[in-house]
Design goal:
Blueprint lengths: L7 H6 L9 H8 L2 E6 L4 E3 L7 E7 L2 E6 L5 E7 L4 E2 L1 H4 L8 E4 L3 E7 H10 L2 H26 L2 H10 L13 E4 L4 H7 L4 H13 L3 E4 L2 E4 L2 H8 L2
Antiparallel strand pairs: 1-8, 2-7, 3-6, 3-8, 4-5, 4-7, 9-11, 10-11
Helix pairs in contact: 6-9, 7-8
Length: 232
């Protein structure tokens, strides 16, 4: 599919990393970018391959995952529109340490290491924005590890439904619908749960009249009561 109409400088301008660049700088950065349209299941990179670029999801969703020695898949992160990945690894001269696949039809922007290094040499302040972005991702990963270690499976599922979908401040009695962006098995892996346990928790919450399940749509009947239920 043709991707030429996609305006790369305009898209870069709305990303925190590039938002302070001038039009000329954005145009120069865009020259080091590649846009790809991916179908569901397409490979972006595999463990052990050279990492010479980082990536930004324009539309769609990407799965970062590891494969155990036994062949089991563990989802590390689900990356949605406007979010980037592989920035830190790009500077280590090390190969990819994870795998990445498109979970849905995805438009992906890849930014070459060469163009980023050139921009840093022109303006060292650019490196500070890069560090800030990497720090935000690290903070998020630490939060995920903390959640897996300290929170029960029930709390992790409720936290996903509320915080990941920005409905934690709902007024009592207001119904919100969360559309699961990927399969329940993928979300379960992301939360370090088995698919069976994830489904069990959802059905328990439904039995308590906290949510209503309609295939991939989860209707949150009472967000405040749901949050309190996770604290029990």
């Amino acid at each position: 599919m043709d991707v030429d109409p996609f305006n790369i400088p305009r898209f870069l301008a709305v990303l925190p990393l590039f938002s302070d660049l001038s039009p000329a700088e954005l145009k120069r950065a865009a020259e080091g970018c590649q846009v790809r349209r991916l179908a569901r299941g397409d490979t972006i990179f595999r463990y052990g391959e050279p990492c010479e670029e980082f990536h930004v999801v324009v539309t769609g969703r990407v799965k970062l995952f590891a494969i155990s020695m036994a062949g089991q898949e563990k989802v590390i992160e689900l990356v949605g529109p406007g979010h980037s990945f592989a920035e830190a690894l790009m500077f280590t001269d090390q190969p990819y340490i994870l795998n990445a696949d498109a979970l849905t039809s995805t438009l992906l922007l890849s930014v070459s290491k060469q163009s980023i290094v050139a921009e840093i040499k022109r303006d060292p302040r650019f490196s500070l924005r890069m560090l800030a972005g990497i720090s935000r991702r690290l903070h998020g990963l630490v939060h995920d590890i903390e959640s897996s270690a300290l929170h029960s499976g029930m709390q992790r599922v409720i936290g996903y439904l509320l915080r990941e979908n920005h409905v934690e401040d709902c007024a009592t009695g207001e119904v919100f619908t969360v559309s699961l962006p990927v399969t329940k098995a993928t979300i379960a892996s992301r939360l370090s749960l088995t698919p069976e346990y994830f489904s069990k928790v959802l059905h328990e919450l439904e039995a308590e009249n906290l949510i209503q399940i309609d295939k991939r749509d989860i209707h949150i009947i009472d967000a405040q009561r749901l949050e309190r239920y996770g604290m029990q």
